[in-house]
Each structure stands twice: as structure tokens, then as C-alpha cells.
Amino acid sequence: MALSNDELKAAILNKAMTAPKPQLYIKDFYECDPDTKPRAVKNAANDLVKEGKLTFWSSGSTTMYAAKGRAKDEELRDTAEENK
Amino acid sequence: MPKHDTPLLDELEKGPWPSFVTDLKRQAEKKPECWDILGQLELSFKDRITHWKHGGIVGVFGYGGGIVGRYSDVPKQFPGVAHFHTVRLNQPSSKFYSSAKLRDICNLWEKYGSGMTNMHGSTGDLVLLGTKTENLEPLFYELTHDLKQDLGGSGSNLRTPSCCLGKARCEYSCIDTQALCHHLTMHYQDEIHRPAFPYKFKFKFSGCPNDCVAAIARSDFAVIGTWKDDIRIDQAGVKGYLKGDYIPNAGAHSGRDWGKFDIQKEVIDLCPTGCMWMEGDTLKIDNSECTRCMHCINVMPRALRVGKEQGATICVGAKAPILDGAQFATMTIPFIKVDPDNDFEEVIEVIEKIWDWWMEVGKNRERVGETIMRVGLPTFLTVMEITPAPQHIKEPRSNPYVFWGEDEVEGGWERDVKEFRKRNAQ
Predict the structure, then answer these.
(1) Domain count, chain A
(2) What is the predicted ipTM?
(3) Which of B246, B264, B364, B397 is such that its CA lies 20 to 30 A from the CA of A69?
């Protein structure tokens, strides 16, 4: 049976925070609940972005998701390099 | 910001053509960061490598596309372009806008960005080049509230839909491309502004098979206007061309004297399927063989017109990447109704069937055309519930094996193979 929307969001967030890779493709979240349709997983992940718990990372051609603070951010990286 | 010595770039100002270097120098008088663009580009020419990094978490609140992060990898040397993000604006259908609107956009970009634009990007968007992260939210606010413009698509989103001039200015158009483009843009706002797919997905709409937006070469989902019945022939018009009363090609290519119009040489012999001929001074067409190349109609628009029963052909899976191979779209649905009165529901049904399948089966960073190529066209047609037509077949098969579907085999894949072999063991 498919997870409820809240359960699905919790599973997505958990995966984003614990996965070895900081940035994940939308398809990586499908395994959070194989019974849920991809479009519902996408909607749940995008809701988490609106809530400020996930963030988008985009190369311009592809978009990935990361838990807030885990994404590789060029500006933060540049600042960190300057502070070294 | 200091000027930089740019001897290599200066070479690009020497030809008789317009030079972006000259434009950038002119713009740098108002926007000093443009000196740093020139400086960094000169360095790239010397180093033979780009000094741009792209990607990041930049964007505006609530949107997952429309802004492409750009950063310099030598920010200390060129601080003016340390951040130099690209902003994509959703262009109006057919790119019809007033000069007042363009002036407003340019003024806004002078205020918040470098002032440099790309009209239009190959995506179709109005592309604004170069701003800093802190300018994005105020720019977006004024753009949406004062100018009533929206951002376009980027990343794994539905990209900004794009269409030809359509019925607004073109007599060949078989569908109202502007209405379709606008309707789908509004219908799929969520998919345009937030990532939804394994990779990018592009719609393009052409009113006729001339395909002026090159939908068949550039879009994952190409809707190309066509007709089902016969090409309309005005035999008096044909005679007009034969007598020289009308200029062929509607006056195009008239820069030199091509001699007297020769219908045999210029039209009939060039028909790719050989479906036209003259009987006396009457033009005949075997419409069942017409492949909709548009050549005869383009040459003799006063004599020939597209048919009356109009709709569209849907082709799926083109891509034009910089790396890896370009691929044309595959004709998937030969004819579909394109009806604004029912909000284009036939087209939307096809789109969503493709998306549901591709979102599940497509790999990360795999365009739908690549997925089709990987699983094979027969599988895709089965998913789409389309009966294969001769036009779906690229070439006669060379493989002697016959591949059956499970439902075509008695007992399916679950039958007792050992029992079957026992019976055939003699």
C-alpha cells in the first residue's frame, strides 16, 4: 500500500539527509515508496522545497535535490576558500 | 573596474561583420563589469579553457528553474563577473511583443543586471545575461508585478514552449500554434517552474510541415500541423504560373534571373514521392502518395493550398545536444485533432501518457528520445497504445528471428517448458 503524503515526505527527507551523496536525482526518491507514482513523489519533493527543508541544485540542464545545507553551493565554497 | 588588455579579442573587431566585442566595450562604459567579461574571455582564449563554472542553488523562492547559476573560477582577478547568473524569461507565443515591452525589459535589466541580453536564446526564451545573487529576488518581483512577465524553464523542467507565427501571419498554418502554445504554457505552469522529469523536456509547435521552429529536430514533443485530405488545387492559378503572371516562390530567391518558370523542372521533378504530373495544362496530384514536403505549395502558393481537414502530426524524441549525437524526432501519431474548443484534450492526453511512462522508465539525464532508442520503438508504441503503421518502419528487417509478445504465445511466458521439450524430444 502506498504511503500517505506525510509519510512519503518524511521518507524523502530522511533519504536526502542520510544518503552518502548530498545531491540526489528525483528518481533516487522513487525507492522511498515503490507503490507511489513518480508524479506523486515529485510533488512531495517539491512541497519539501517550498517548506524550506529541501533545496534545488541545478546545473542549468539537470536539477537535483539536497537537504538544506547539504548542497554543493559555489558561493559558499568560494567564501570558505577565501576564509582558509 | 579597470580595463583589461584584450589583443586577441580585438582581432574580432576587424572584420566587416558586427562584433560582440565592440558591443561589450560600448556596454562597459555604462556597466563596468563588462570589462571583466572581456578580461575573462581574453584569459580563456590564452588558456584555451573556459573560466565559467555553471550550476548551483541560485533561484527565486518557489521556483526551481528559470535562473542558471554562473560563476567565474577566477573571481579575484575578475570580481565583476564573480557571479554572473543567466535569467530566462518566458517569451510570448510567436515572440510577438511591443517595442514598449522590450524597452521595459531592457530598462529592468540595466537596473538589476549587466544590460546584456540574448534575443532570443535557442530555447526561445528572452535571455538576460549576468546578474548577482542578491539582485534575483528584486528583479523577479518587478518582472512579475510590474512587467507581468514570467521566468522560463531550465534544469529538469518542462522548458519554455515555443511556436511559429502560426495563423497570425501564415496561410500555410494548419493549427493555431499560438493558442496551443499559450494554453499548454498555462496548463503546465508547475512543470515549467519546478523540476518534474529525469531530464529536460521540450515542446515546440509548427503550423505546417515547413516546420519553421525546427520542432522535429529540437523538441522532445513536436506538434507539426498537417492535413488529411487533398491539396487544394486552383487550376487557374497553375495556368497563371505557367504564363508567368505570378512569380514563383512568392518572390523569394528573386535576386537573380532564373529564366522562365518551368513547372516540370522546378516542381514536378523535385517532388520526393513523384506524385505529381501534368495532363495538358492541368496539374494532377496523387494525394495518397504525398509526403507533405511542402515544396510544391511553397513554389506555387497562389495555385496550391494545404487541405481542409487539418490537424497535426506528433513526433517524439528529438535532441540537439552539444556533445553526443543529435537525433531527429520519430513520427509517432500521424494525425491528431488539435481543437481549442476542448482545450486541446487529445494533445494533453498524449503528453501525459508519455510523461507517465518516461518518468518511470527514463534513466537520470536521459532524454525521452534516448529512452525510446534504448527500449525500442515497438515497446514505446505498445505503451502509447498505437498500432504500428508502415511509416513507423525505418527499414525492412534484417534479423531472421521473430519476437513475440507474451500475449501472442500460448500459455504466455509461464508455460511448462520442460513439458514442452519432453513432447518434442524425439
Answers:
(1) 1
(2) 0.86
(3) B364
